[in-house]
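agent: user wants the full assembly modeled, not chains individually. Plan: 1) parse entity lines 2) check alphabet per entity 3) run joint structure prediction 4) return tokens. Steps 1-2 passed, two entities, 1060 residues total. Proceeding.
--- entities ---
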Amino acid sequence: MKKRKGKTHAKEIAEKLHRFEKIVLLCLKKSKEMDLDELVKESELKEVEVMRAILWLRSKELIEVEETPMKLFKLSELGEEYYEGGLPEERAFNLIKEKKKIRIPELKDELSLDERELEISLGILKRSGVIKIQKGEILFISSKGIESELKKKRKVLEAVSRGLEIKSSGELEELRKRGIIVEEVKTKRKVRITKFGEEVSKFVKLIEEIDQLTPELLRSGKWKGLSFRKYDIFSPSPKIFPGKRHRYIRFIRWVKKKLIELGFEEMKGPCVELNFINCDILFMPQDHPARDIHDLFFLKYPSDGNLEKYKKILKRVKETHENGWKTGSTGWGVKFSEELARKLILRSHCTAVSARKLLSKDLKIPGKYFTISRTYRPELDWKHLPEFFQLDGIIVGKNLNFRNLVEVLKIFAEEIAGAEKYEIVPSYFPFTEPSAELIAYKKDFGWIELGGSGIFRPEVVMPLGIKARVIAWGLGFDRLFMIKEGVKDIRHIFSRDLAWLRGEK
Amino acid sequence: MKIEVKRDALVEYLGKRVTLKELEKLLRLLKIEIDEVKGDLLKLEVIDTNRPELLSTEGIARELRRFLGKPLRKYKVKNFPVRVIVDRSLSKIRPYIACSILRGLRLNEELIESLILLQERLDLTIGRKRKKTSIGLYDFNKLKPPLYYTTASPDLRFVPLGFKEELSLKEILEKHPKGVEYGHLLEGLKKYPILLDSKGRVLSFPPIINSEEIGKVTSRTRNILVEVTGTDLRSVSRALNIVTMNLIDMGGKAYGATIVYPNMKIRTPSFKDREMDLRISYLKEISGLDPKISEIKNILRKMGFKAKPKGKDKLRVVVPFYREDVMHEVDLVEEFLIGYGFNKIKPEKLDIVTTGKFDELDEFLEDVRELMVGLGFQEILSFTLTNKDLLFRKMRRKESRVVEILNPISKNFSCLRNSILPSLLEFASKNKRYDYPQRIFEIGEVFFPNEDLENKVEEKIYLGCLLLEQKASFSSMKSVADVLFREFGVKVKLEEEHDPSFIEGRCGKLVKDGRKIGIIGEINPYVLEEFGLIMPTAALEIDLGELFGDRGSGD
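--- prediction returned ---
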């Protein structure tokens, strides 16, 4: 910038000065040279405000700043601890003096010292002839050599703690090497007004300015005689956070909308389920590994449900399991336990919700249903949580066939997962036959298992008295969330990190 | 189930090198996935839990040979030279036994390992961890038939496998690693199952451990006795069949045993195939395809099922004895579809017109979420599994009955929540390092025991919200509640409430038709301290079901 130095120019500059600048400049006009602390005191501004004023005034060449680095000593965290509780050599000395002899590990435990502290302390005490070590035992000899040294060290610590000036000494050096005292370099600033600054300061006048415009000022019209303090519009403003939906729940909503567009109706079922509905109706053999306590949460209280309502169906399901009943199946050939069927469990898959729909009186044939609900399994590691969400559904119709199932999976792969390629491969579930798995290709993720499906077995459908075929499907919901939202860590679903939820991470 | 097989061993059985890609494709037909390839080792996942015969290299090779058009072995039992006499006392303990003898074996270490792995996998799957079946292998040359399957007192002594000295049955259950692992299967019994030979020597103490003397099989063993005991006859025979077949594949000649029960005689093993009818119309209906009979027959043969026409609409299908997973003709339809190739099946549009519909309650919850977000609250999502310490002690609330888990995975997840506020406070305690004010809410399930329901548990949907800020107050939360009541037109009265989670005198309950439907207040500093919070906190919790049922009645 080209400088025009003259009277008019000085006046012009004086008028545009910020209030902080004006105050600081007026302070300096009086004293010519001040350091930062003095300026803060004199101006009655905050330190940041003074700093800001200095910065601006300096760039306008109204002041000069002289910076000199200064060494300062400070207690480290460890130093603070020792200052409070005593230096380890001091504590060791006191204990040894009292006990006269002590074994090293005992000393270590008694004072709860770490290996390094212990070594240093014993070194010092040995050097000053306070102790002798024989076969791992410390013997006290004399306290002559140590007491003045300890006194000096205490003095140094105190001086540092109180921020007093300290002369260099052997003790200071030792404590610094041991990391008890740390050195800090601080810059000391001296601010001087320039010739031009003095010129400008002649034109500086502090007048009343409006800080916050208030209804009172507006009502009275008082604002008319006053000028507005200019804001520093570039200063940082406080961070605020909007209310936000949880990403996972927002995604649930998105999938629901998609399914509803595809003609599916939402269905619901309880989280606490009868074993009968979660497993038996679905033709899962009662001693199936997926039904033992490692795969299913059982309830301690209340432990058993009431099957009264399902008497007729229970009898058919029991026979189907044991010998196939009228379904044409061999059954599992194992005795069916009503006691086990009655047990209450936490729903382990959302196929249980589909089973409930098939049991309900308002089942529509034809009908298309889905659910996205919580499910529970006794697993807990980096890949599995005991609670998670599943997306399941059924299509009920008189003449459904496997090619319809292929069509449904195709729609899911394309419309919901947005997969580039997909494949349908054989799979197994105790309750469907044929069973198929959908695997899909997605860029950045490769081939992934997207979900399972099949046509419900006659052993499932016939005991319920349903005279239609049922296509059942389920999509790995968490996986779907991850590929659609680009979330890499499954644990984010139940994230307890507010910053992540707020979108800061 | 996850298993590991050696690729070289598999190739040897196949008599043909196949690329990994081909292998992957063929394994798909058996519902087996390749999880990982580590040099010669293939880590596989056998998805079909009802096909235990696939849990070994031999079993998988057997199926693959057929897909590759290789000649198939006929599994036969020569004769039944050994008698096994079963004592009456076992009828309520572990009633069934099945045996076979394999002669002329020349096993190397690798085959022995494969055999032991198969035994373990079958004990785990068909055997349901040895409860239903358990398998024993013996050096046939070291024992003298007939065998006696009977019971013995806990004092009977013999040298168990892996030990040098004799132990009593009781001591085995206490000291032997297998005794410790499986002892619970014999809990409460006065006498234990035992298998003896004609000289009274112990073969094994089923289902725990074999004897060191007879029950040890090495690469020098030429003739092996296989024995399966258990509680279910069908499973016992099934396990025996699978082991025997594998030993035949390994070069053995099979002989059987006559099992003499108190009331019947059975010969084991039994390699008898079943026959089953498959209606062609049914196959067409389910598959949605229209194949010729010859095509169906060819595909089924490829999948291991011989079929011949029976009448106009039926095929008589031979189901190999080891395919017990085929329970219904629908299983044959699937075999056909797999053989046909899923990838060749063209999708067919559904002939069904339906209208989609949201759940009504869910729609309402969506409206509530929108309001809460509009009020500046961040939505969170928590587990419904929690613990009593959090629900009661930390909240300073009196303990009430909650839904409890019998087999919790961790102490922290031992019951279901009956309030959302503890979840929210716990969330807040984990996020102390972030900027305040913090406004959070959650809408979710809470649970209450209720004898009148079929599942004995009432599930409600609650809204919980917390306001953590310098000036968080009862009144600021009440304003939030008022928004909800105004928006949904519900008439709710505020009454004084005394809840130790809240500051006394700064807590109110929300009452509708004389029922408490929610609570508002400032969280008690004692509670804040429990959660390590140093920010004033106001809270609100409402049963949304109560608002939903009554929407609009106030207008």
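agent: reporting back. The domain at 249-271+348-502 of chain A is CATH 3.30.930.10 (BirA Bifunctional Protein; domain 2). Chain A touches chain B through 103 residues (CB under 8 Å).
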